[in-house]
Amino acid sequence: MPAIVLVGTQWGDEGKGKVTDLLGERMQYTVRYQGGNNAGHTVVTPDGEKYALHLVPTGMLTPGCVPVIGNGVVIDPKVLLHELDGLSARGVDVSLLKISADAHLIMPHHRALDRVVERYLGSARIGTTGRGIGPTYADKVGRMGIRAQDLLDPKIFRQKLELALREKNQVLVKVYNRKKIDIDAVVEEYMGYAERLIPYIDDTRLLLDKALTRGEYVLLEGAQATLLDVDHGTYPFVTSSNPTTGGACVGAGIPPTRIDRVIGVIKAYTTRVGAGPFPTELFDDNGKHLLKVGGEYGTTTGRERRCGWFDAVIGRYAVRVNGITDLFLTKLDVLSALEKVPVCVGYEIDGERFDEMPMTQTALHHATPLYEFHEGWSEDISAVRRFEDLPKNAQAYVERLEELCGTRISVIGVGPARDQNVIRHDMLEA
Ligand code: IMP
């Protein structure tokens, strides 16, 4: 029953593409289980081609691997088709793609509401990607959503859209002073997408069950990350889905008993885009250094990422919430040339020490990091492939993070190329 979950441990952009680079060829299926085109994975194929994927699973780039968009994903059909066309134009075979009939569709009113609500929130805004993600999930839970399967039946599609727009148009016009959305134009647009998307729509939970029963490898690929989880993250500054391991079961329709390994991707420092608390955030030259050396600009929105030191409270929390069996530490090379490398080992909040994530959001907003200072290393480590060849101080840094997070660091990324890794353990083996 080899189902493997891949999760981000911080606020996203940890470099999940590196893991899929490493494991992709051993997988028969890769599944996106939540999020939508708010995500961005950068993947470099063996022939050196670089791809920025937003909606399709990374398995799309591995010949023979079946990419699946699970029921937990929200799909903007226009974006998906654009992505598929772009991949086809570069010679990628997209014909194996499967889309869950139960995945929800992002509609024009969702995009409109995402943008207008953010503007309305002013300084209290979330800093969303503006892609309509939150409103689509809200309608899913509010039982007003439109699903991929509705594309199969134009009559039902129109009926559901009519019902949704009856309310949404009132809100857009009367609350936010926007133009109303024209139903005929939307039906026409989406029926055009339907023609192209219908061949990919499938019963993906049955497909995955059969694959797992045959003993095939299925990688459940999370987008965003633990602290952006709507239940376990820094609410309300989160995305509207569950990137954590539990979300993988729900969003792919496979039971927890099928999951063997959970791989957590963790950056050797911390970044975040959008608003919300970030205890180790740097506002000085060190922050600028990480931004520049780490190339910390969003794949989806191009926004500058906020940068800070490694936070072991978050690392421990992610291990605990997700049941992580292996950590993949990315971007260790970005820390080379620093004299001292600080690591946050706990917080001080109103005079009290916290070793674990505080219970309330207010407390997290008031957290002051408690740092341990590690000796840095000046060597370029980008060509290192064996742990024992890393500078002693880099080895000590990794071992300390491992100890603080409470699980093994199995792979260390030392550069952006797919082979720039130090492998210590096979992540698929206990
Ligand atoms: P939304 O997912 O567009 O609703 O945005 C909600 C929050 O999640 C914002 O702070 C976004 O910046 C953040 N977010 C969404 N997707 C990603 C991602 O792939 N990486 C990092 N942050 C993300």
Shape: globular
**What bound compounds does this protein have?**
inosinic acid
Q: What is the CATH class designation of the largest domain?
A: Alpha Beta
> Poorly predicted ranges (pLDDT <50, ≥5 residues)?
none
Number of helical runs? Answer: 12
Subcellular location: Cytoplasm
Main location: cytoplasm
Binding site for GTP: 12-18, 40-42, 305, 331-333, 413-415
Cofactor: Mg(2+)
3D architecture notes:
With 430 residues, the chain is of the alpha/beta class. The protein has 3 domains: 3-100 and 205-263, Adenylosuccinate Synthetase, subunit A, domain 1 (Adenylosuccinate Synthetase, Chain A, domain 1), CATH 3.40.440.10; 104-197, Adenylosuccinate Synthetase, subunit A, domain 2 (Orthogonal Bundle); 266-423, Adenylosuccinate Synthetase, subunit A, domain 3 (Adenylosuccinate Synthetase, Chain A, domain 3), CATH 3.90.170. Helices cover 32% and strands 20% of the residues. It contains 12 helices and 20 strands. It has helices at 16-23, 77-89, 108-121, 133-141, 154-175, 183-197, 204-213, 245-252, 285-294, 312-322, 361-365, 392-405; strands at residues 3-8, 29-32, 41-44, 50-53, 66-69, 74-75, 98-100, 104-105, 201-202, 218-221, 259-267, 270-272, 306-308, 310-311, 326-330, 340-349, 352-354, 368-375, 409-413, 421-423. The two termini are 14 Å apart. The model has no long low-confidence stretch (mean pLDDT 96). Inosinic acid binds at residues 11-13, 38-40, 126-129, 131, 133-134, 223-224, 228, 237, 239-240, 273-274. The site of inosinic acid has 21 residues, from α4. Substrate binds at residues 299-305.
